[in-house]
Specification:
One of its GO terms (molecular function) is aspartic-type endopeptidase activity. It is found in: Cell membrane. Keywords: Cell membrane, Membrane, Transmembrane, Transmembrane helix. Helix 1 runs antiparallel to helix 6. The chain has one domain. 84% of the residues lie in helices and 0% in strands. It is globular and about 45 Å long. The relative contact order is 0.17. It is an all-alpha fold and 137 residues long. The longest helix is centred in the last third of the chain and has 33 residues.
Length: 137
């Protein structure tokens, strides 16, 4: 069953990475699919669906979005992914996502600084990598 969830998350998050890099957009339908997968993951592996932590992040994320620090799709994606994680995994997820975000920023600046300056950072890539690391390690 672990392989099924890892493959499902990998497939869904690969699409997130592609669309975020190409269009700087994360589809609501895709976020919904990820939320369903995350809820099932939480139910089967953590015996818990973390609605409270997801809701708290959604509230905090709203203010992050209003301040223009992160896009709405990124906030919704993180919220959907948090649903299936336990508290230790959430801390790991935040840590790994931060590290991956720095790497995505540095790589983006090396490849195309003008694109990063104009269109922003495709943070969905960092979120996807951080999540996959948090459920793997």
């Amino acid at each position: 069953m672990t392989v099924f969830f890892n493959q499902s998350f990998f497939f869904e998050l690969s699409i997130v990475c592609y669309t975020d890099i190409k269009y700087r957009l994360i589809s609501n339908k895709l976020v919904f699919m990820i939320a369903v997968t995350s809820i099932l993951y939480g139910y089967f592996f953590n015996e818990n669906i973390n609605f409270l932590s997801a809701f708290i992040f959604l509230l905090i994320g709203f203010f992050i979005f209003v301040l223009g620090l992160m896009g709405g799709g990124d906030i919704k994606l993180i919220t959907a992914l948090i649903l299936g994680l336990n508290h230790l995994q959430i801390l790991n997820f935040i840590f790994y996502t931060s590290i991956c975000g720095l790497l995505v920023l540095l790589l983006g600046m090396l490849i195309s600084f003008s694109d990063i300056k104009k269109r922003g950072i495709p943070y969905g890539v960092a979120i996807a990598l951080g999540f996959l690391l948090s459920i793997t390690y």
